[in-house]
Amino acid sequence: MDQGKKSSTELLTAPGPEDQDAGAGREKLEEDRGQREEQEEQEEEEISDEDYDTDLELDDQEEAYDPVGQACYLEACRALQVAPASYFMRHMQSSELSMMHRGLGPQGTRAVAVALVTNTSVLQLNLQGNWMEGAGGGAVAQMLTENCYITEVDLSHNRLGDLGAGAVAAMLRGNGTLRSLNLSGNRLTARSVEQLGLALVHNSKLQHLDLSHNALGEEAGRHLGDAVSENTGLRSLSLAWNAIRGAGAVMLQRGQPREEAYDPVGQACYLEACRALQVAPASYFMRHMQSSELSMMHRGLGPQGTRAVAVALVTNTSVLQLNLQGNWMEGAGGGAVAQMLTENCYITEVDLSHNRLGDLGAGAVAAMLRGNGTLQSLNLSGNRLTARSVEQLGLALVHNSKLQHLDLSHNALGEEAGRHLGDAVSENTGLRSLSLAWNAIRGAGAVMLANGLGGNISLRAVDLTFNGFGGEGAVALGRALKENASLEELNVSNNRIPPEGALHLAMGLKRNNTIKSLKVGRNPIQTAGCYGILQALQENPQSAMEQLDLPDVTVNQDFDDLYSAVKEMFPALTVNHGGRTGAFKKQKLEKV
Known about the structure:
Elements: H1 3-13, H2 24-46, H3 70-80, H4 86-90, E1 96-98, H5 105-116, E2 124-126, H6 133-146, E3 152-154, H7 161-174, E4 180-182, H8 190-202, E5 208-210, H9 217-230, E6 236-238, H10 246-255, H11 267-277, H12 283-287, E7 293-295, H13 302-313, E8 321-323, H14 330-343, E9 349-351, H15 358-371, E10 377-379, H16 387-399, E11 405-407, H17 414-427, E12 433-435, H18 443-455, E13 461-463, H19 470-483, E14 489-491, H20 499-511, E15 517-519, H21 526-538, E16 547-550, H22 557-569, E17 574-577
Parallel strand pairs: 1-2, 2-3, 3-4, 4-5, 5-6, 7-8, 8-9, 9-10, 10-11, 11-12, 12-13, 13-14, 14-15, 15-16, 16-17
Helix pairs in contact: 1-5, 1-6, 3-5, 5-6, 6-7, 7-8, 8-9, 9-10, 11-13, 13-14, 14-15, 15-16, 16-17, 17-18, 18-19, 19-20, 20-21, 21-22
C-alpha cells in the first residue's frame, strides 16, 4: 500500500476525545470494532512480514487514482461515524478551501485531514471556528507533515489548547511549505508558546504567524523573545490580546527586531551612514534618490561623504546613471563606490572623473569590473592613474565583456601603460569606445597599443589625441587599419605624426572598409600627407569614409582638384582643412 494510505490510517487511529453520547448505537459500534479487530488478527497470521493492511482497505481491491482524496474521505467518514460534508466534497479540487464554522468537531476534522493528506489541489485551507480541539488540531498537524502543497492555514478559534499547539509545533519543525498560519483564539498558554518558540528557531519558511487572542501571559513573552531573536523567516507576527507584560514584555521587545519600512532608495541607510561617518547628509542627494539619472558633480563629498552615498546606493533600485565627477573622493571613496557596484545590479553608467582615485582606487575599480555584469559606461578621466593602474584594469578588461565605453583620458599612463593596454584591447570583446587622450603614450607603448587595436573586433571609436605616437606609432596604426574590420572613428590629432607617418596611415586606408571618420589635425603632416590620405580614398572604392578632419593643415590647388574627383566617388564625404595655399610642389618622400 502507498504512503498516503499509511498516513490516512495513522490519522484515523490517532486517539480522540471520548464520545458524549451512550446507548445502543455505541454498543453496536464497539461490537463491530471488536469483530473487525479479530478479523485483522487472523489475516496477519496469513500474510508475510512485508505486507500490511489498514482499516481503509476492503477485500484487497485496487482503488483508482484519487488526487483529491474523495474516496479516502468517504471511507474515513464511515469509519469515524460522521456524516460527509457535501460542501467539502464539492470544493476538494479548489485551490482555496474555506470550511469556516461548519461544526466539524474533532472527528469531522480528522476525516477532512485524512482526505487532504494526498490532495494536490488545495493551497489555502481555512478551518476557522470548527471546535476541533486538540485531537482535531493534531490530525491537521499530522496531515501537514505529509502534504507539501498547502501554504496557508487558518485554525483560529478551535480550542486547540496546549495539546493541539504541541502537535502544530512538531509539524513546524519539519514542514517546508507552509507560509502562513493563524492560531488566534485557541486558548494557548505559555506552555504552548514554549513549544512553538523552539519550532520557530528551526523553521525559516513560515512568514506570517497570528497568535492573537490567546492567554499567553508574561512567561510567554520570555520564550517568544528568544525565538523571535533567532528566527530568520517571519515577516509578520501578531500577539494582540495576550496579556504580555512585565519582564515578558521586556524580553519580547529585546528579541523582536525593529520593523523597518521598505526602503527601496536607501534613504534610511544613508542617514544612518551619515551619523556613523559623522558627515552632513546631502539634501540634494536625498531629494534625487528616486531619479534614474543622479548627478552629484562638484558637491565636495570627500572620501567619507562618498562612502555614505555608496552605502545608500547598495540597495537603491532607481538610479541607473550616476555622476560623481569632481568630488575629491580619493582612493578610499573610489573603493567604496567600487564595492557598491559589486552588489548593485541596476546602475549602468558611472562617471568618477577628476576624483584623485590614484592607483588604490583604480585597483578597487578593476576588482569590481571582474565581477560586475551590469555596468556599460565608466569614466575614470583625470584621476592620476599610472601604468600600475592600467595593469590592473587591463587584466579586468580581458574578463569583462559587458563594459562598452571606457574613458581613461587626462591621466599619467605613459609608455609602459601602452604595453598593458595593447594586450587588453586585443583580447577584449565588449568595448565599443575607448578614450586614451592626454596620456603621454609614446614609443614602444604606442606601437603595442596600435598592434592591439589591429586585433580588436569590437571597438567602434578610439580617441588617441594628445599623445606621442609620432612616425613609429603611425606606422603601427597603418598596419592596424589594414587588419581591423570594426573601427569606425579614429582620432589621432596632436600626436607629432610627420608626413611619412601620414602616408603609412594612407596605406592602411587603402585596405580599410569601415573607417567613417578620421581626425589627424594639428600634426605636421603637411600638404603632402593630406594629399596621400585623400589619394588612398580614391584608390579604395569600398571605403566608408564620411569625414576627414585636417584642421590647421593648409592645402593647395592640387589637393582641391583631387578632392573634387574623390567627391564624385563619395558624395557624403566632407573634408575640413586649414585653407588653401599656392601651387602644390611635390615633395620627395622616402619610399615606404
